[in-house]
Request: fold
Amino acid sequence: MTAPTDTEVLPATREVVLDLHRRMVRIRRFEESSGKLVETGEMPGFLHLYVGQEAVAAGMGSVLTDDDQITSTHRGHGHAIAKGAELRPMFAELYGKTTGYCKGRGGSMHIVDMNRGMLGANAIVGGGIPIAIGAAFASQYRDDGTVAVSFFGDGATNIGAFHESVNMAAVWDLPVIFVVENNGYAEFTPQEKHMKLTDIAERAASYGIPGVIVDGMDALAMRQVSLEAVERAKRGEGPTLIEAKTYRFFDHQGIKGMRIPYRDPAEVEAWKSRDAIRLIETIGVERGLVTAEDFAEIWAEVEAEINDGIEFARNSPDPDPADILDDVYTV
Amino acid sequence: MAIEIRLPKLGLTMEEGTVDEWLLEDGAVVTAGMPLLRLATDKIDVDVEAESDGILHRAVGDGATLEPGAILGWLLAEGEATPAGTAPAAPAPAAAQEDVAIITTVRGDDDIEVASADGRVFISPNARRVAADLGVDLSTVRGSGPGGRIISEDVEEAAAAAPQHTGPAKVASPLARRDAREAGIDPSTISTSSGYVSRGDVKAAAAATPRETAAAAVSSTVVVAPGSVKQETASIVPMKGMRGTIAARMQQSLTEMAQLTHGFEVRMDAVVALRAEMKEQYIALGVPVPSLNDFVVRAAALALRQHPILNATIQDKEIHLLSRIHMGLAVAVPGGLMVPVIPDADRLSLPDLAAATRDVAERCRNGSIGLDELEGGTFAVTSLGTYGVDMFTPVINPGNVGILGVGRLRDSGTWEGDDWVRTQVLTLSLTFDHRAVDGAPAAEYLQTIAELLARPLVLVS
Amino acid sequence: MSTRELTYVKAFNEGMHQIMAEDPDVFLIGEDVAGYGGVFHMFDGLLDTYGQKRVKDTPIAEQAIIGLGVGAAARGLRPVCDLMFMDFIGVAMDQIFNQAAKMKYMFGGAVSVPLTITTAGGAGMSAAAQHSQSLEAWLAHIPGLKVALPATPYDAKGLIVGAIRDDNPTIVVLQKKMLGVKGPVPEELYAIPFGEAHVAREGTDTTIVAIARMVPEALKAAEMLASDGISVEVIDPRTVQPLDTDTIVASVKKTNRALIVHEAVEFGGIGAEISSQIQEEAFDYLDAPVARLAAPFAPVPYAPILENAYVPDAARIEQAVRRLLERK
Ligand SMILES: Cc1ncc(C[n+]2csc(CCOP(=O)(O)OP(=O)(O)O)c2C)c(N)n1
Ligand SMILES: [Mg+2]
Reply:
């Protein structure tokens, strides 16, 4: 099954376009500003930025409720924001402050927001996939009508945890959606060097579940396939593997670009020309759903939210080393 | 207000006491009645208890020997300073860095206490080893390690300070010492870079002196390794506590007094016969049957009334004859000897005396004897009869001028007219201080006892 | 040949180059080890020199990476399998501890597994709980494995060569924070045998047994203490399995005190083993309980202020030594 990629035919309302746009802009600006702050040394750690892939998280995020659960990856800021995470505790976490989502303990690769169904980012490739089927198992067990979604990269589909999890979820018809964000690279290794397939969606066939390919730069298309997969899961028909073809605009880690030219600059430019945010702005304006001013307003509002988040994080207290043993166990 | 902890005066003759060990750490929160320290007096060891609640601040360390009344420390209120002009408490080290230290886990020395409540003194394993090697008595060493623990440096310093030790103190492992002995080398002469003589060092030293050893081996048919006659310590019994007290007191007695002993055989036939006669009666009455020794004690006590010179004490070139007769009784206890006192022993009936001797002996052995009951004796009796000893030289308890030793009851014989009759006798050994008592009066005292024992009805009435 | 200053990572890299030149059975696999030269530059230039047959990028598949190494080693090759961050051994643990470690023994000696696993451990980079761990005690606990933790450029080269030449499964844990540290390294190929501790500094007052990146921290602390007349002996075991107990015990017999420092959590850490061995072998030589300085019983935190508090450093080592030596 291949999803329609022609956005012209998809139902798109003004609200949906604005919603998807805001989700993506929040991600983009969060990532760009965080990247800068790490580069200047104001923020610690290292970042795997989501810029370029926003449509995938935004499309899926727009069809989920706070009760649905997601698991994420080392490249997880976008998933959290698309799921509705607030920027203040996100920035604060990256700054390592007590007001952060993990009280400064987790940092960039471990954002969590249990109130919004964000079950946590994961620094172990593939680590979140089995956890998602556990969350879906709980949905089925409780019969509460919720679903679970696991985001992961092309590289992660080579790891045992992926195969074990998809198979088990398929056998048990668990309400889970596997979203592989195929950005063509696992770190610096191109897809053709780490697997024989071009379309990872084909892997679904070996487990007897639908595999769907979608344009990961098109938020409306992503929203459409997400909706279908979620509904299928809620009907009790089991999991779907969605392969979103997408691209990261920055390096594997950080902003600064490539240590070695492992990617063809032309390839990078070609993908950049299909920028997901610009795409939805074009569609919105062309179809007369949204004006350019409406979009500009969103950018401005997000900018204010970004500045507020950074200011909040800067002014937040550092964790107290005396509390270092807190939360090792549930007490 | 700071409550002073003073060294208690536990008896008339107590001149000083030694803080054997503190039972609580400096800074411990103390409630009234808690034992604070173990005090070693010249008689027994007692626990000094807190008079009131407070925070313990120790002014003296373990091993301090002071006069009664001396301040040992204070019980302070929260935040209260020690009274001015006293030794300041050792400041807590590196307090400023505490906040960092709590984060990274550090295990090790912080939690050491000098002495735990069960009286254990903390000595590092290395210090024990070095002390054994150097022959240092650990009870003489003051600890300077964390929490006051005795560490090897303390032992080495003590060894260096000890006069009998010549040459630099060298630490050698037991195996190295054995090797050295076998090679005929004095470990203290072996040079090492570390101050510690290893087996390797011994080997090197032995290799460096092959000729002498070889020459010694051929020049003599009997080769005695020079080290083979040396004493080796199998284990060490610290002379502290009761042992230390006994040592000090006996030495004091023999150095201060002019002691000599009379041996005197007394017949016991009448006592033995009377005792046999009365035995059933006593048992029927449910009172303890007096032992032969009780008869002798009673006789000795009564005889003292007639010979007050032996119930005396010497003070500043004066002989003080004492009005009351408080009889000390030597009681062997594990690891030593105690001398509980039976006050006014001459006024007790024989059954009462017998009951009293049993009672104090029992309480000496189970440790419930009070310090007061070990004080104030004016004369003493000691018996080694049950050990098969006939005649010995008892040592006078300091403060007294005499002590009577009781020997073994044995069969003997004597001519009565033309008949050789069998008798039962024992030997009394009276040690007296010649400064106060001369030989004849001492013998007269013994004769009085002999007469009383020959007519024992006087003793039971 | 001469000795010159190289960085830790360059010394390791040189060892890899030289051993691959020497032994055609040595090959390298791992994620981004070939085209990219390893995310820490550990394997720079190997692909160009030895070609795609011997230097291969793998999919993200740690279990298969190690398992492949086990199988190839059983056939007599000398695989070097890279796990990038030490934390990722969790994904491959079955192949490491059930397979690689046990084959020799459980097959009655029929198979040898001359496998080398390379990885990078240690905290200090705000890489948080899943990218910062020091798990050497885990590995040292498994009979059949050998574990090396180089703390100098010299050892980084010598231990990787020693590991690859060893006929047993070995794990060489590089220190992320030390990659740029410089030190003298001979040009020629040399191997450091496993189980030989390095006395990094001689002293008489106390012994510090330091693991991995704690070695330079301990040396710094020793320098600080020396100005106060405190003489510290620093011992770097270099391999924790096998562990050179003899050198440690001899040192403690001389100094009568020991402090063990590592950045892994204290509970059940390798310090517990070392401490136990010291008290078993040198009890009568101790003037103080064996002390440990290690991370608290918590995962590695992200915020720099927490992470700094978490990992021991020279200042805290100095304090710990002073506590150990305190005399009244
Ligand atoms: C188990 C494990 N192995 C290796 C890594 C190192 N690593 C981090 S991201 C990454 C590449 C992941 O590629 P992909 O799944 O395609 O995600 P992308 O980075 O492209 O978003 C690798 C190998 C890891 N974090 N966890
Ligand atoms: Mg990828």
Summary: DSSP finds eleven helices and seven strands in chain A. Residues 1-8 of chain A have pLDDT under 50 and may be disordered.
